[in-house]
Amino acid sequence: MEGDCLSCMKYLMFLFNFFIFLGGACLLGVGIWVIVDPTGFREIVAANPLLFTGAYIMLAMGAMLFLLGFLGCCGAIRENKCLLLFFFMFILLIFLVELSAAILAFIFRENLTREFFTKELKKHYLRNNDTDVFSSTWNSVMITFACCGVNGPEDFEAVPRLPHLLMEETIPEACCLRKLQSREGMFVNRESCLAGNEIFQNRQGCYTVILNSFETYVYLAGALAIGVLAIELFAMIFAMCLFRGIQ
Predict the structure, then answer these.
(1) Statement to judge: residues 122 and 186 lie in one domain
(2) Which of 68, 100, 104 is nearest to 236 (CA)?
């Protein structure tokens, strides 16, 4: 009976580690996608240090889970006590780090609000000054997502104009409609756009556009993170039970 229980525990251990392996692969894939994505998400990440750090943490955690899932599967099948103990200690460490990261993300969630981005835009944005990293990043985001400011063109009323700009320019040219949404795309009518003609402007704020674009992915990532934490917890329990059961 004890042998059957140990055998069952071994295969459950293998199953949960296989899910950890898959979860690590998913996190690794999402982390790589966020960092190298050419459609503009990496620009948003670069604009906020919290998101930038989070993307690399996700990448590192994905790689570690990928490796540990593989080691856990090997330890379970081969019934190697040393490998199982090694797996348990590292999966416990990862579990505590992920839990701490989730708590910190909840505590600092106000840094991702509409008000925070609006304040930062009005404080640091220098319009078409592409030598400034913050301004260049915001321009890339607005061009890529065909949006303007955080809430809309009205955000730039409080942004000072550069000395060489025409006084009638009400918004940065990144807010102007283009035939192709890229920096190389031709303007539909640049002069009329900068003069305030709304027909040739992107009127929707970037916060709403980006939130709508990535809302599905955010919920998916959250559900995936919860699932990974639950699987890690069960894997630790099975690893310790299997470790104690092996003679």
Answers:
(1) yes
(2) 68
